[in-house]
Design a protein that fits this description.
This protein has 7 helices and no strands. The chain is mostly helical and 190 residues long. 28% of the residues are buried.
Length: 190
């Protein structure tokens, strides 16, 4: 039988994780920039990987109608959490660009301690909100798709939803950090 105190603690941490994920992201960005040792080759490779994550997040944000309907089209046909998968791919790209083990460890820790509980909390909400969610969850994996060929990733994409969800911030943030890394290369390695 499950420990009720542990369950309460888990729910409390999910709430805390949800509230601190953005401030922790900014703290991670500062740590990231301080530790990063980019080179042009790794910066370009990391940017290309991050771009894949940005495209996935873009496609997902143009599909989801938060709290109104269960989205199962576009990238949601392949994974239940394409926004988080996109964030993971972006993070991998930035870890490659940084060329620093401590950055990679910090990114993994943030995902495990902050994003996994947030994903679980969101899935609990979706189960309560949408009766079809359980069947969807049985058919579609949470984060790792069965295939990497996302043929219909943009089917049903809505530019209006993309702008409404302000997903362009992921692109702007990634571009700003890549520019900062380029400046760091120029400043320290001329």
């Amino acid at each position: 039988m499950a420990d009720p105190q542990a369950a309460k603690s888990n729910i409390a941490w999910r709430h805390v994780a949800r509230r601190i994920r953005v401030p922790m992201g900014f703290a991670l960005a500062i740590f990231y920039f301080w530790r990063a040792r980019p080179t042009w080759r790794f910066l370009v490779l990391g940017a290309l990987i991050a771009l894949l994550g940005i495209v996935l997040r873009t496609a997902a944000s143009g599909q989801v109608k938060k709290n109104r309907e269960l989205t199962m089209t576009g990238p949601y046909a392949y994974v239940r959490n394409p926004l988080y998968l996109g964030s993971i791919v972006i993070a991998i790209g930035f870890a490659v660009a940084a060329r620093d083990l401590w950055v990679a460890i910090a990114i993994l820790a943030m995902f495990a301690l902050i994003y996994v509980p947030v994903i679980r909390a969101e899935e609990t909400f979706l189960r309560k909100q949408f009766p079809a969610y359980d069947g969807y969850a049985r058919r579609v994996p949470s984060l790792l798709p069965h295939t990497l060929l996302f043929r219909q990733i943009m089917d049903g994409f809505s530019r209006e939803l993309y702008w409404q969800h302000r997903e362009y911030n992921a692109l702007l943030g990634a571009a700003a950090m890549l520019a900062a890394l380029a400046v760091k290369i120029l400043w320290f390695h001329g």
